[in-house]
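seq:
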Amino acid sequence: MTFGLTFEKLLLIGLIAVLIIGPDRLPKVAESFARTVRRAGEYIRDTKSKMRDEIGPEIDDVDWRKLDPRQYDPRRIIRDALLEDTPKPAAPAVATAIAEPPRVPTPRPEFSRTSPPPFDVEAT
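struct:
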């Protein structure tokens, strides 16, 4: 992973760091940076070995690209689902015989100045 860093960008970052840190503190900062990078590498190696010990040799058979969450783009999933050409199953004859009764709309109450809508004092 390069994170979009080119050699020129790294050189510019290094130059700015040298100007900000200054020549007096630069050796100590470089030493602590090298120590931090070394510790991070050891941590990654230890984590890999612990995973291999806990999971076993099956870890080498895992397809890690298949588990990458970036492949689950919702737009692509919806597009694939819409473009998918699957025949819809035919409705069984029994389901058409047992139909839902038609819904009758409930009458809405009419409100006026003489009959205002209900008001809950505690709700406001």
